[in-house]
Design a protein that fits this description.
Keywords: Transferase. One of its GO terms (molecular function) is acyltransferase activity, transferring groups other than amino-acyl groups. Helices cover 33% and strands 35% of the residues. The chain is globular, with a radius of gyration of 16 Å. A seven-stranded mixed sheet has the order 1-2-3-4-5-7-6, sandwiched between helices. The protein is α+β, with helices and mostly antiparallel strands. The chain has one domain: Gcn5-related N-acetyltransferase (GNAT) (Aminopeptidase). A hairpin with a 4-residue loop joins β3 and β4.
C-alpha cells in the first residue's frame, strides 16, 4: 500500500504546500524546531544539503508514496542517533495529504521504517518524541509496539504556553517478538 523512497529536491515544494495554510504550532508539531514558520523550500534545502546529504550523514529522509497511485503523501525521517548503542530516532513524520489520513497509513509507514531500522541499519532500539496531546499519533506508535518511557514537561514553548512531550521507544527484541 505504501513505499518509502529517499526524499529528493523535487519533493520540497510538496512539503511546503502541505504547510501552506497551517500555523507555526502545526509546523513545530511535526517538524520540531528545525524549521521556522512559515516553512520555505530554502529552509528544507538548507537542512537537506547541510545535514542529510553531507558525507557520512546518519540522517535518512524518506518520502511516503502510495504504491497504487505513486502519489507522494508524506515524509518521515530516520536518524542513527547513537552508533555505539545502535539507537535510531524517528522524527519529522508527516502525512501531508489530509485526504488519506485515518486509513492506517501511519502504521504501515512505521512498520516499514522499523523494518529498515532493525534490519538494514542493524539498530537495537528506535526512539521518538511526541507531544502528549497528539493522541492519534500516540495510539499509532503504541499500535506498532512503541512504549512511553518519559514525560518531559514544558518541552517546547509555543504561542499559548508550553507543550509536554513523551519519549517513546521500541527495542529490536520487542519488535522481533511482535513480528514472528
Amino acid at each position: 500500500m505504501i513505499k518509502l523512497q529517499y526524499l529528493e529536491e523535487k519533493d520540497f515544494r510538496k512539503i511546503v504546500e502541505w504547510n501552506g495554510n497551517k500555523t507555526s504550532d502545526y509546523l513545530l508539531q511535526w517538524a520540531g524546531p528545525v524549521y521556522t514558520y512559515p516553512l520555505t523550500e530554502d529552509q528544507i534545502r538548507e537542512y537537506f544539503y547541510n545535514k542529510v546529504k553531507k558525507e557520512n550523514s546518519d540522517i535518512f529522509v524518506y518520502k511516503i508514496i502510495l504504491a497504487d497511485t505513486n502519489e507522494t503523501i508524506g515524509t518521515v525521517e530516520l536518524c542513527i542517533e547513537d552508533k555505539v548503542n545502535m539507537v535510531g530516532k524517528i522524527g519529522r513524520f508527516l502525512i501531508g495529504e489530509e485526504n488519506v489520513r485515518g486509513r492506517g497509513i501511519g502504521k504501515l509507514v512505521l512498520e516499514e521504517l522499523l523494518r529498515i531500522g532493525f534490519t538494514k541499519f542493524k539498530l537495537e532500539k528506535i526512539i521518538l518524541k511526541v507531544f502528549d496531546f497528539n493522541s492519534g499519533a500516540i495510539k499509532c506508535y503504541e499500535g506498532v509496539g512503541f512504549v512511553k518511557e518519559n514525560l518531559i514537561k514544558n518541552a517546547r514553548k509555543v504561542e499559548n504556553g508550553y507543550w509536554n512531550l513523551y519519549e517513546m521507544s521500541i527495542s529490536k527484541y520487542n519488535w522481533k517478538n511482535r513480528n514472528k
